[in-house]
Design a protein that fits this description.
The chain has helices at residues 8-15, 33-37, 39-55, 67-79, 135-146, 165-168, 177-180, and strands at residues 17-20, 28-31, 60-64, 82-88, 96-103, 106-113, 123-131, 150-159, 174-176. The chain is globular and about 45 Å long. α5 (135-146) links the parallel β7 and β8 (150-159). α1 (8-15) runs antiparallel to α3 and α3 packs across α4. The chain is α/β, with parallel strands linked by helices.
Length: 181
Amino acid sequence: MTSRYESAAQALHDKVRLVQDFPKEGILFEDLTPVLADPEAFQAVVDGLAAACEKLGADLIGGLDARGFLLGSAVAYKLGLGILAIRKKGKLPPPVYTQEYELEYGSAALEIPASGVDVKGKRVVLVDDVLATGGTLHGARLLLESAGAEVAGNVVVLEVGGLAGRQRLSGPPLIVLDDAD
């Protein structure tokens, strides 16, 4: 099957649904649902994410709760790698590694298993759908580093401008599909 999309950026441009004033007035919401539902657009996005993760030298893909699970799983499968689901606090049985982090509206915590999955020395690339303030990706980095992993980079589909998320992620490289092609 030949795709009508030559790049992830083209698929995103054609398929992202823009919703003005959601979830509140003044915000332009970029809905990825139509991208994920279209087989060719989804494939273009997964191919773009996989190429970025491969470029960063991933040993393991870290998918952030929840849309990062979906995207990260497809990338891991394509690359023949494992997927580490980085969960919101309270979703995994103990023992777990836990990392609290700050969000624009409060705080939250992420967890990964402390047994059964050895991340020590692994190069993990974090995959998520959208970079906004960078709080969740930063928290995931701290969590993985505390467990002995190296975060080799961050790969996201879209970036919300004006929220300083890029600055918060200083250190490992950041690749945004919407401006990477």
